[in-house]
Amino acid sequence: MSVVSYRSLRVWQRNRDVFLKQWRSEAPGFVIEPFLVLLAMGVGLGTYVALDEGQRYVDFIAPGIVAGYGMFSATFECTYGSFVRMKVQKTYDAIIATPLNIEDVAAGEVFWGATRALLTSCVILAVAAGFGLVHSPWAVLVIPLSLLSGIMFASISLFFTSLAPSIYSFNYYFTLFMTPMFFFSGVFFPLDSLSPLVQHLSWIAPLTPVANLARALMSGELGTGAWWGLAIMAGLTMVFFPLSLYTMRRRLLV
Amino acid sequence: MPIIEVRNVVKKYGDITAVAGLNLEVNEGECFGLLGPNGAGKTSLIRMITGLSPLNSGDIRVDGRDIRQEPRLIKAALGVVPQEENLDPDLSVLENLAVFARYFDIPKSEARHRALANLSLFELQDRQKAKVEQLSGGMKRRLLIARALINNPKILILDEPTVGLDPQTRHLVWQKLSSLRGQGMTLLLCTQNMEEAWRLCDRLAIMNEGKVVAEGSPRELLAKYGGSQVLEIRPAPEAKSKVISRLKEFGFQWQEVEDMLFIFQGDGQEVEEEELKREMVVLNRHVPTLEDVFLKLTGRAIRE
User: Fold this and answer.
1) Do A98 and B104 touch (CB under 8 A)?
2) Do B263 and B199 sit in the same domain of this protein?
3) Contact, B188 vs B157, CB < 8 A?
4) Cβ(A120)–Cβ(A69) under 8 Å?
């Protein structure tokens, strides 16, 4: 009875309609900022960074930016965005009085969060291609990769949102989880420069496989990718997606 | 067969029992009112009927379907006007209705047609492009009702639909609601406004502490519990307990509301004013209203 139906698409459509109305005010976050980071770190800082095998730093971080900003898009959407819809605007309450159930709403939110991640990753990928930072046609597979990554991060975020007592709770989520992950998941520097212990730790962080695989695909050196990372992503998604539906039901249907 | 059937329903929040074994039947095509003080369990009951809150025990059937088994089909036939405004602030007035229609799988052109018709029904056609935040409180409430009607519901459920509205808007809402009932729609109306209950409802249930304490048409309830006259008195604080003991002695029914006492007269019981004159001054006397019935059935003395 309490299962996700095609009706979750209605929630996705609602969020899409709102996004199409106001994407201009959101564009700085998912277009301009990643571009600036790529420019400042890749071209600016990159001049002073020497990597093994003569790889250019900007080539190294471009896939990391694709992965990292995709993660942030899904996460912002399913933390602050979802919390405001749930708690402030009472949008969920209005929707579950229609034939949609709470699982449809939660799943629609996750799919929308994933769509935002996909959109962001595609924009950055296109910019990177324009700067000549894409070295292989395998890079097209970054598109499905960022969709899977988006579903994973959106599910984890919505799970946290369903437990968050207030909007300020997200300070913990971002400071203790998102920011460390952004810096220690192989986005900005190779993991093998870290101590073995930290290296192991960083493989727990869900961003690590995404950055690693995006890099393998964009460079065309598929052999460098740790492909078992896909299993980590699939595993986390299979845990957190149903969990977020369950905790949302527990929170809202009282 | 009743269109809404509530059987022995219990709802608990931790140690608090909000609905305590409640029974209720709403017939098709009637306007049924739920009256009760804050915390009587009205909103909890409505949340359960609309599938937003699981039951601890008992059964609810809406239009012949079990709320536990077929909540989606039940919700497809309901229009819900919540107490707390939850319009979509990210969308315009017209988009609010169009997007809401999509939750019911209403095709786009039909949705637009119905949305425009409902907006003009509630005199909002000039505001279709406005943002929700630009609307006045009365407009928002009208939009909420217009939204609840987008799926042509069999049953319209309203939780205090006229709270905080100016008299003009209140009358507009009442007139629309009675015309909907005239078209055969079933209305379930939660209210604390006695005039609203009196004007609109065919039958009423007065709720207190999670149970129905009286049920019937407004006239029946008035005849049964209202008596013939109500005396309003304000005894001096030091004389209050004495007055109350005299009332008990004479076997009167009364209700204490803050510093006032309402004494219900009827069934041959008339206060001999001379007898009580030393202790009290009668401030006013009035013909009993639904409000007196409400106070009598849900007031403090009843709970003691």
Assistant:
1) yes
2) no
3) yes
4) yes
| Mean pLDDT within B98-113 | 97
Which tokens hold the place of B165? 């509205």
Nearest 5 degrees, angle CA B122-CA B125-CA B126?
Answer: 125
Domain boundaries, chain A: 8-252
Higher pLDDT, B289 or A243: A243
Residues B54, A91: C-beta atoms closer than 8 Å: no
A186 with A212: CB under 8 angstroms? yes
B55 touches chain A (CB under 8 A): no
Whether B103 sits inside 8 A of A95 (CB atoms) is yes
Interface of A with B (CB under 8 A): 1, 7, 10, 13-14, 17-18, 21-22, 89-91, 93-101, 253-254
Token pair belonging to A98: 């229609």
The two three-digit tokens of residue A139, written as one number? 């890079």
SS3 content of chain B, % helix, strand, coil (to 5): 40, 30, 35
Strand partners, B15: none
- Asked if B90 and A21 touch (Cβ cutoff 8 Å), the reply is yes
ipTM: 0.91
Q: Total structural domains in chain B?
A: 2
pTM of the model: 0.91
User: Domain check: are B69 and B182 in the same one?
Assistant: yes
CB B278 within 8 A of CB B286: no
pLDDT of residue B279: 63
Q: Which of A184, A193, A106, A196 is nearest to A151 (CA)?
A: A106
Distance CA B54, CA A249 (A): 11
Read off the tokens for B178: 């009675």
Q: Domain holding B80: CATH number? A: 3.40.50.300
pLDDT of residue B304: 40
pLDDT digits (tens, 9 = 90+) for A158-215: 999 999 999 999 999 999 999 999 998 999 988 888 888 888 888 888 999 999 999 9
Residues B68 and B161 in one domain: yes
Cα-Cα end-to-end distance for chain B: 37
B121 and B81 both lie in a single domain: yes
With helix as H, strand as E and coil as C, how does A90-148 read? Answer: CHHHHHCCCCCCHHHHHHHHHHHHHHHHHHHHHHHHHHHHHCCCCCCHHHHHHHHHHHH
Pairwise CA distance, residues B80 & A94, whole Å = 9
Is the CB of residue A15 less than 8 Å from the CB of residue A112? yes
**Of B222, B245, B265, at which residue does a domain stop?**
B222
Q: Please indicate, yes or no, whether residues B25 and B111 belong to a single structural domain of this protein.
A: yes
- Give me B54's structure tokens: 């699981």
In terms of domains, do B282 and B205 share one? no
d(CA B129, CA B140) in angstroms, rounded, equals: 14
Judge if B30 and B63 occupy the same domain: yes
Q: What digits encode the pLDDT tens for the residues A46-102?
A: 888 878 777 889 999 999 999 999 999 999 999 999 999 999 999 999 999 999 999
Nearest to B81 by CA among B122, B127, B128, B131: B122
Q: Which domain holds residue B253?
A: 227-287
